[in-house]
Amino acid sequence: MNRIDQRFAKVRQEERAALVTFIMAGDPDKASAQDIMNGLPAAGADIIEIGMPFSDPMADGLTIQLAGQRALAGGMTLAQTLDMVKSFRVHDTQTPVVLMGYYNPVYIYGAERFVIEAVKSGVDGVIIVDLPPEEEAELGDHARAHNLNMIRLVTPTTDDNRLRKILPGAGGFLYYVSITGITGAAAANAQALTPRLKHLKTKTDLPLAVGFGIRTPDDVAALSEVSDAVVVGSAIVETIGKIGKGQAKISDVITQVTALASALRQPARKRATNR
Amino acid sequence: MARSASLYKSVPDENGHFGIYGGRYVSETLMPLVLSVEQAWEKAKDDPAFWAEFDELARDYIGRPSPLYFAESTTRHLGGAEVWFKRDELNHTGAHKINNCLGQILLARRMGKTRIIAETGAGQHGVATATVCALFKLPCTIFMGATDIERQKPNVFRMKLLGAEVRAVTSGAGTLKDAMNEALRDWVTNVNDTFYIIGTVAGPHPYPAMVRDFQSVIGREARQQFMDRTKTLPDTLVACIGGGSNAIGLFHPFLDDAVVNIIGVEAGGHGLETGQHCASLTGGRPGVLHGNRTYLLQNEDGQILEGHSISAGLDYPGIGPEHSWLHDQKRVNYVSITDKEALEAFQMMARLEGILPALEPSHAFAHVMKIAPTLPKTHRILMNLCGRGDKDIFTVADRLGVTL
């Protein structure tokens, strides 16, 4: 069983949803990003998503765009992103790590080389935003051969025809994009999402993670009622953005994640009923 | 060199691939939209009623066919090959861009879309989009880099007069690629009512093929006009390339004519050796951006670089995927021309022909000036004069040290 499956088995046992936290590799600087990543599991993050910085992040809002720009300005590269995971693995062999980004840096690095190095570094899954199933084979075939999960996105515009293309070859979990829009945009509504997620559950055994527009412990609590995992990105990255300006500290990020994580662990939030 | 008649008509394949180039590299939210544009386009392009509407407006609104002009004075001055211009700068709005905007807005109407978005660099595609939106009373938002807004004020004002909302893009360096990123972000947010009119032969399938088909009116007309006037085909075609829509428009109907030599001219900026240029084919390598795989200016880590050109219309770090394929096939020969050479060609055409060309086709003309004297008098060069230079007089004045 791989780390992602193990982690979902564990949170299921604890009768709660998983917290997925997103940070950008190299943001606000390489050393701080490493410290933040290393501190996330103790703060309660169940799965760590690491953004691979890209100059042209077409699906991201301003917060994540700026994070990528900060990282690139500090000289972050894809090879160093993999090193960051390698360093993390020295202390943590349990927490799943998922890389998220755009295809061009991976393509230039070399798809097969990327997969081999990623697995060696301790990466468990990859989300490539601009690589739909139709174009995915040149990376995905290598990934599946090396047991690296290709995590795919499902969106409000995805109908059953698309699902039939998306689900074969998908691994780890399904990432449900809660809104039509970019990261950091308007909030997702748990109630409105319920029928959609229930429908998806009938189509796949993969765990469902819900992301985009989830910012606060209350958002996390509400969404955790209807999904297997909740992704928080822009809200955390905003705090990280303040570190560079001297308006926040690494401990503030950890405090924020701790609050998000505790929202999942309140006894009232224990579910198992509406699954 | 592969030159079978079927080869150039066989691309792209059903997934939009020109060899390894093209494709549909977009987020899952956009996939159903991109597929629905493709479906609508497949239907429209086989519908005579669609083309009847296109042809009528092309004639009465754009002013097509554009003339074929024998540049006698240039020919005499250069002392070699005959030089001919396809005069697409005489179109309504002053460039070839409107051919594509007309086609796409007719498709948007067929699809029942009620809002139009577009990206623009120099503002020419923005003006052409705003123009057809005014014609069809569709609200229109144009994304333009903040840097470009500053250096292209007249076109910003034109777009506003035509009723468009011009939205400044401050992310990145605030130029064309950032405007395209922002347009894609808008599209992903407004998936139900919005149609994205992409300005060049790039983006996810079907855009590169669809824009090519709309712009091919240039080459079809030119081929017929040339045959009527000279009873032969031109020996050499020359066109400038940013994204490459005017070039593919001229080239495509001639690709199967093995006797026709075809040259695309990229923007060499300050010179390829300086790294300050927009020559994706001669100075870049294959990568994935804005929905397609193609040659891109990028660093060793796959980060996209900002290009540089005196011509804002060529200032894009990529190129249409079909050009990348034609480059690899060696069917088209791609060269580059520097800012300085283009500026000299701009002034030369003004004096020789009484035509102020846009800085984009000034690159093509600079290459014509290089090769015509080396070719025999029996050789005929056809150049696409794809835009007029009124918009560029401020840039030119600035480079010449003239205060207006």
From TrEMBL, chain A:
GO terms for molecular function: tryptophan synthase activity. Keywords: Amino-acid biosynthesis, Aromatic amino acid biosynthesis, Lyase, Tryptophan biosynthesis. Its EC number is 4.2.1.20. The active site is at residues 49, 60. InterPro entries: Aldolase_TIM (IPR013785), RibuloseP-bd_barrel (IPR011060), Trp_synthase_alpha_AS (IPR018204), Trp_synthase_suA (IPR002028). The keyword Cell membrane does not apply. It catalyses: (1S,2R)-1-C-(indol-3-yl)glycerol 3-phosphate + L-serine = D-glyceraldehyde 3-phosphate + L-tryptophan + H2O. Pathway: Amino-acid biosynthesis; L-tryptophan biosynthesis; L-tryptophan from chorismate: step 5/5. GO terms for cellular component: cytosol. Tetramer of two alpha and two beta chains. Belongs to the TrpA family. The alpha subunit is responsible for the aldol cleavage of indoleglycerol phosphate to indole and glyceraldehyde 3-phosphate. PANTHER family: TRYPTOPHAN SYNTHASE ALPHA CHAIN, CHLOROPLASTIC, TRYPTOPHAN SYNTHASE, ALPHA CHAIN. This is Tryptophan synthase alpha chain. It comes from Micavibrio aeruginosavorus. The lineage of its organism: Bacteria, Pseudomonadati, Bdellovibrionota, Bdellovibrionia, Bdellovibrionales.
Automatic annotation (TrEMBL), chain B:
One of its GO terms (molecular function) is tryptophan synthase activity. Tetramer of two alpha and two beta chains. The beta subunit is responsible for the synthesis of L-tryptophan from indole and L-serine. Belongs to the TrpB family. The keyword Hydrolase does not apply. NCBIfam families: trpB. InterPro entries: Trp_synth_b_CS, Trp_synth_beta, Trp_synth_beta/beta-like, TrpB-like_PALP, TrpB-like_PALP_sf. The modification N6-(pyridoxal phosphate)lysine is found at residue 97. Keywords: Amino-acid biosynthesis, Aromatic amino acid biosynthesis, Lyase, Pyridoxal phosphate, Tryptophan biosynthesis. It catalyses: (1S,2R)-1-C-(indol-3-yl)glycerol 3-phosphate + L-serine = D-glyceraldehyde 3-phosphate + L-tryptophan + H2O. Transmembrane segments: none annotated. Its EC number is 4.2.1.20. This is Tryptophan synthase beta chain. Its cofactor is pyridoxal 5'-phosphate. CDD domains: Trp-synth_B (cd06446). The keyword RNA-binding does not apply. GO terms for cellular component: cytoplasm. It comes from the Bacteria.
